[in-house]
């Protein structure tokens, strides 16, 4: 079994906490700015933007705790580590976004029936534009740090904050139209549109997080493994298939089937598989473990097996099978290798 118990270093954990701390601090400041703009203008569109900022603050606070817990190493009760809590954090954030969208639409409809009008739109626009710009920079920073530090929670927060930027951008455009046309009903209409957009964003975030909790296949992870497998192939490794990955934060468990010469003894198979697993896991960007199940070639793979001095070969070698994404999901049927007829 190839194992890389690459626990987070103190420096990496410190960087995660630092990024989450920045997110919390900036989110609080931006929330206050947006509510200030709402108080100046009585704009329901700005109120919708401010409501999402409350979600940002709560999410940033939760992320701090999640990062600490997810960094704990695996133990007897959690053999794959504690990283899956990051998916839970992401799902919770999506749920809060969806709830905020309902509140925004409800408040906008009430404001429409009350016939409320907006004021001081010029000042409100400046404040919202400033907040949007800071949000965009913060979102890009969190996504970058999340990818570098392999943190699902930081990446999810970054994606949410960038979505918040686009929400603010839409609010700014709508308020400009309201300011120029004096059609104040546009403000309520825009607030409802923002609410619907946030509802969609929250729903998709929940779906994505549930997929991670249920170990849904991640094509990007498999594509990464295709490249690593291809670079680490050793003589005797004929084909790899049925690859499955359990993602638990920065710790991944990888299962796979490998086709190997049927005449090799247990020691030969162990040595080659062990060497291959360790080569792969060391090149893999996450910590974790790899476990291979060995399938015998049964002489059906002769045309694609480059092993020299094979005592059971019944057909000449033609070409080696390239490692492909489709094969990792399921093996090609032996008939597709055109085995000899007896």
Description:
The chain is built from 9 helices and 4 strands, in the order βαααααααββαβα. With 342 residues, the chain is α+β, with helices and mostly antiparallel strands. It has 2 domains: 212 residues, Cation efflux protein transmembrane domain (Alpha-lytic protease prodomain-like, Up-down Bundle), CATH 1.20.1510.10; 119 residues, Alpha-Beta Plaits. Strands 1-4-3-2 form a 4-stranded mixed sheet. Strand 2 and strand 3 form a beta hairpin. Helix 2 packs antiparallel against helix 3, helix 2 packs antiparallel against helix 5 and helix 4 packs antiparallel against helix 5. The longest helix is centred in the first third of the chain and has 32 residues.
Question: What characteristics describe this protein?
Answer:
single chain, 342 residues, alpha+beta, Alpha-lytic protease prodomain-like, Alpha-Beta Plaits, 2 domains, four-stranded mixed sheet, 9 helices, 4 strands, 62% helix
């Amino acid at each position: 079994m190839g194992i890389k118990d690459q626990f987070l270093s103190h420096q990496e954990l410190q960087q995660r906490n630092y990024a989450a701390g920045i997110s919390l601090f900036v989110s609080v400041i931006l929330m206050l700015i947006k509510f200030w703009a709402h108080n100046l203008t009585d704009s329901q569109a700005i109120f919708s933007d401010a409501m999402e900022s409350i979600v940002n603050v709560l999410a940033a606070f939760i992320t701090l705790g999640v990062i600490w817990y997810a960094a704990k190493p695996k133990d007897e009760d959690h053999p794959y580590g504690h990283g899956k809590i990051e998916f839970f954090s992401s799902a919770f954030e999506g749920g809060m976004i969806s709830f905020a969208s309902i509140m925004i639409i409800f408040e906008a409809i009430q404001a429409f029936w009350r016939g409320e009008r907006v004021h001081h739109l010029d000042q409100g626009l400046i404040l919202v534009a400033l907040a949007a710009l800071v949000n965009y920079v913060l979102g890009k920073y969190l996504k970058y740090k999340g990818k570098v530090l392999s943190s699902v929670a930081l990446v999810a927060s970054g994606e949410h904050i960038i979505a918040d930027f686009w929400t603010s951008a839409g609010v700014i455009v709508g308020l400009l139209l309201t300011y120029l046309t004096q059609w104040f009903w546009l403000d309520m209409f825009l607030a409802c549109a923002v609410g619907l957009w946030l509802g969609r964003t929250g729903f998709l975030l929940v779906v994505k997080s549930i997929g991670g909790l249920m170990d849904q296949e991640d094509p990007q992870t498999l594509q990464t493994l295709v490249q690593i497998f291809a670079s680490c192939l050793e003589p005797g490794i004929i084909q790899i298939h049925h690859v499955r990955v359990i993602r638990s934060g920065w710790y991944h468990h990888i299962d796979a089937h490998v086709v190997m010469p049927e005449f090799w003894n247990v020691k030969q198979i162990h040595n080659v598989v062990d060497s291959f697993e360790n080569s792969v896991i060391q090149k893999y960007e996450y910590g974790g473990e790899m476990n291979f199940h060995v399938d015998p070639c049964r002489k059906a793979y002769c045309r694609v097996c480059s092993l020299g001095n094979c005592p059971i070969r019944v057909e000449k070698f033609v070409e080696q099978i390239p490692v492909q994404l489709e094969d990792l999901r399921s093996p090609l049927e032996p008939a597709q290798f055109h085995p000899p007829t007896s």
